[in-house]
Amino acid sequence: MPSVIATLKVKEDKIEEAKTALKQLATETLASEPGTLVYTVHQRKDSPSTFVFYEKYADDEAFKTHGTNLRAKGAVFAGILAGPPDIVVVDEV
Predict the structure, then answer these.
(1) Most buried of 17, 32, 40, 57 (most Cβ within 10 A)?
(2) What would the pLDDT profile of 18-53 be if each residue is shown by its tens digit?
């Protein structure tokens, strides 16, 4: 069962916009991707412009589907990200 820890750094002047957009992304993802079991976004207390997603997928196909869907939403991220996300893919043991 693949899981992902994704860390996103957003522009300092886009923190509130990012909170809204990322919460909406999480809600939409869970509603439209049945193979996505967990998709939660967190904001670091020690670095408010840093957001961390924890994601869990039923299988590799569900993870692939999410990646395809996420690429289609690239415009959402273009204006708020301060750099590329740090993505770590792990398998539950």
Answers:
(1) 57
(2) 999 999 999 999 999 999 999 999 999 999 999 999
User: Token pair 């998709």 is at which residue?
Assistant: 39
Q: Dig out the tokens for 72 from the structure.
A: 């289609």
Contacts with 87 (C-beta within 8 Å, 6 or more apart), sequence order = 4, 5, 6
pTM of the model: 0.92
Degrees, nearest 5: CA angle 23-26-32: 140
| Three-state SS annotation for the chain | CEEEEEEEEECHHHHHHHHHHHHHHHHHHHHHCCCEEEEEEEECCCCCCEEEEEEEECCHHHHHHHHHHHHCCHHHHHCCECCCCEEEEEECC
